[in-house]
């Protein structure tokens, strides 16, 4: 019993969350400033998993795949945006336009990858919006109903 | 002295000027635009902009009297079909419109105008002047066709025996359990082929037909937008939009470069009962082989069951063939007669590689079969090499039609431009 508690305590001490609390990155503290590292890592995720459909300039494809620019879906509510990644999206007009391709669920991405790619998308192609953190993605994933 | 010298010259200039003015204004002539409507064409050809419709001009058709009907993807001011009457100069303004539904298909034949929404096919009566007599009360020839958003357009064509052919695209990329999901495998036997992923045949003159009264003419076709009847050997030809995203779905089997070049966009010559093999295979244009799809156990190398239909011709991947037209006119030189023009709307899922297409190609035919290498016929719809590479094209060619004089008409569903291409060499 004692041993189990000890192991748990050690594990908790080593978890990334605890580590982050001890060494906070100054840039990530303000809601408006966006960490460069997250944007760079997010760009790599975007290139690998998102670029084919949404294109290098984030402009999407007419009538097929929606643009990621100038849309409330990207710039607005982070929970809704995170759910698009978790669940995919289909049959939803974006800015009054129809898009015919299905967006599949990207739930194979881990919380950090999702946070990075969402932060990247919200701060690229002319977009400017607050960062998304792994903790935020984790919270949405925990309560996500498909 | 000076005056007396210049006066006769001025007089001559005035006469010449008024003569040329007379020929321009008094006798309007059909002529290409000075810049050939921005298109790059083979020597001897010219082009003009017939009209800027401002709508998403999908397919178009020209009656024997020269009236142009354009089907819009989404109605503009409540009109899903635009009517254009070109003047002697070839220029036209939109003179009317009707049909408050969006769609792609439009085809005029034997005194009727056929047009499709994404679920139905309508028929309008044309009078001796090629005018629609019943714009508000068309006959509903076909109804209740499947539309689940993806590959929704219902392209149409008629044969010479009173049959209507309608594409019903598959609402799927490759019949995966989860559409376009990374690693998701194909559904056994792909049951959606019962009601989509093929060409259905109906009677052209009978109202109220649907699945039960039609025939599945050909299957295993993912999505067809461009199709035409070849009168030389009495056969339906279609252009299939090949599958997308091999790399996104199976990154361990295909890199981004392979994914950009696979599979070919294929032309098929269909006979009743034909099966082109989607989703179980794709066509590799470099190997000239039908390859088993990774969703159905393929690894990029394994060949598919040879029982499936061989393509009649293959073109670079992902260029989206949206229009097919067999040229039967006499205006163009002999080599074009009975050959095929294909409008390639332009690619998107070659990214991150540069995009391709946004042009009209010519495929030579002999005795009703593709014969020889295809060539780019009308290029630069995109507007610049940069716009082509990025896919941010100014114009996207979609529909093709032949005018009564043998001119080739092209519609553009990006900006709504209607083009007319003519042979101008005497």
Structure, described:
The complex is a heterodimer of chains A (146) and B (426). By secondary structure, chain A is mainly alpha-helical. Chain A contains eight helices and no strands. Chain A has one domain: Cytochrome Bc1 Complex, Chain D, domain 2 (Orthogonal Bundle), CATH 1.10.760. Chain A has helices at 2-14, 16-22, 36-49, 51-54, 72-75, 78-87, 111-122, 134-143. Chain A is globular, with a radius of gyration of 17 Å. Mean pLDDT of chain A is 82; it is low at 1-31. Chain B is mainly beta and 426 residues long. Chain B has two domains: 1-30; 32-423, Neuraminidase, CATH 2.120.10. The radius of gyration of chain B is 23 Å and the shape is globular. Chain A binds chain B through residues 47-49, 51-53, 55-57, 59, 61-65, 88, 90-91, 98, 100-105, 108, and chain B through 73-74, 149-152, 173, 178-182, 184, 244-245, 247-248, 251, 259, 348-349, 351-352, 390-392, 396, 414.
Characteristic terms for this protein:
heterodimer; A: 146 residues; mainly alpha; Cytochrome Bc1 Complex, Chain D, domain 2; 8 helices; disordered N terminus; B: 426 residues; mainly beta; Neuraminidase; 2 domains; 5-stranded mixed sheet; 4-stranded antiparallel sheet; 4 helices; globular
In a few lines, what is going on in this structure?
The complex is a heterodimer of chains A (146) and B (426). By secondary structure, chain A is mostly helical.
CATH class of chain A: Mainly Alpha
Unreliable stretches covering 5 or more consecutive residues of chain B: 1-22
Percentage of residues in strands of chain A: under 5%
N-to-C terminal Cα separation of chain B, in Å? 46 Å
The total of helices of chain B stands at: 4
How is the biggest beta sheet of chain A arranged?
A: none
Report the largest inter-chain contact: A-B, 26 and 28 residues
CATH superfamily of chain A: Cytochrome c-like domain
Beta strands of chain A, count: 0
Q: Largest beta sheet of chain B, briefly? A: 5 strands, mixed
- Oligomeric state, counting identical vs distinct chains: heterodimer
Helix content of chain A: 40-55%
Rounded to the nearest angstrom, the radius of gyration of chain A is: 17 Å
Mean pLDDT of chain B: 94
Strand arrangement, largest sheet of chain B?
10-11-12-13-17
Low-confidence stretches of chain A: 1-31
Give Rg of chain B in angstroms: 23 Å
How many domains of chain A, as an integer?
A: 1
The helix-and-strand class of chain A reads mainly alpha
């Amino acid at each position: 019993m004692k041993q189990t508690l000890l192991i748990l305590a050690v594990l908790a001490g080593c978890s990334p969350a605890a580590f982050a609390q001890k060494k906070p990155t100054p840039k990530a503290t303000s809601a408006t400033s966006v960490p460069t590292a997250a944007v760079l890592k997010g760009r790599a995720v975007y290139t690998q998993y998102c670029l084919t459909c949404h294109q290098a300039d984030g402009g999407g494809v007419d009538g097929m795949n929606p643009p990621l620019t100038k849309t409330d879906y990207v710039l607005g509510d982070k929970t809704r945006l995170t759910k698009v990644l978790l669940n995919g999206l289909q049959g939803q007009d974006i800015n009054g336009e129809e898009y015919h391709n299905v967006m599949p669920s990207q739930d194979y991405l881990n919380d950090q990858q999702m946070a990075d790619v969402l932060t990247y998308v919200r701060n690229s192609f002319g977009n400017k919006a607050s960062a998304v953190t792994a903790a935020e993605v984790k919270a949405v994933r925990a309560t996500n109903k498909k | 002295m000076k005056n007396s010298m210049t006066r006769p010259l001025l007089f001559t200039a005035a006469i010449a000027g008024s003569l040329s003015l007379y020929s321009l204004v008094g006798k309007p002539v059909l002529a290409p635009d000075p810049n050939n409507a921005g298109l790059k064409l083979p020597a001897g050809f010219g082009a003009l902009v017939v009209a800027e419709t401002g709508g998403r001009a999908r397919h178009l058709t020209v009656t024997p009297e020269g009236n142009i009907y354009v089907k819009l993807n989404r109605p503009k001011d409540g009109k899903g079909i635009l009517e254009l009457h070109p003047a002697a100069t070839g220029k036209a303004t939109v003179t009317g419109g009707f049909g408050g539904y969006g769609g792609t298909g439009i085809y005029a034949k034997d005194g009727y105008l056929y047009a499709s929404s994404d679920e139905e096919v309508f028929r309008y009566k044309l009078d001796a002047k090629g005018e629609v007599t019943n714009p508000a009360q068309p006959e509903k020839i076909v109804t209740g066709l499947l539309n689940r958003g993806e590959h929704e357009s219902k392209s149409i064509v008629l044969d010479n025996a009173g049959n209507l052919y309608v594409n019903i695209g598959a609402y799927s990329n490759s019949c995966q359990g989860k559409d376009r999901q990374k690693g998701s495998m194909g559904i056994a036997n792909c049951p959606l082929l019962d009601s989509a992923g093929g060409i259905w045949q109906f009677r052209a003159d009978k109202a109220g037909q649907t699945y039960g009264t039609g025939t599945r003419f050909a299957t295993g076709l993912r999505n067809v937008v461009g199709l035409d009847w070849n009168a030389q050997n009495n056969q339906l030809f279609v252009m299939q939009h090949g599958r997308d995203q091999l790399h996104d779905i199976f990154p361990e089997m295909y890199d981004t470069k392979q994914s950009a070049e696979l599979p070919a966009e294929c032309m098929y010559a269909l006979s009743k009962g034909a099966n082109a093999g989607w989703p179980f295979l794709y066509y590799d244009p470099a190997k000239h082989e039908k390859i088993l799809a990774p969703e159905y156990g393929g690894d990029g190398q394994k060949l598919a069951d040879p029982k499936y239909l061989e393509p009649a011709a293959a073109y670079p991947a992902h260029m989206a063939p949206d229009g097919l037209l067999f040229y039967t006119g006499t205006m163009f030189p002999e080599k074009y007669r009975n050959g095929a023009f294909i409008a390639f709307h332009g690619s998107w899922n070659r990214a991150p590689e540069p995009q391709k297409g946004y042009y009209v190609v010519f495929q030579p035919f002999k005795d009703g079969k593709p014969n020889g290498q295809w060539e780019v016929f009308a290029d630069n719809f995109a507007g610049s090499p940069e716009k082509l590479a990025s896919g941010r094209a100014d114009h996207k060619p979609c529909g093709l039609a032949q005018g009564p004089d043998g001119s080739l008409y092209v519609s553009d569903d990006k900006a709504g431009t209607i083009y007319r291409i003519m042979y101008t060499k005497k």
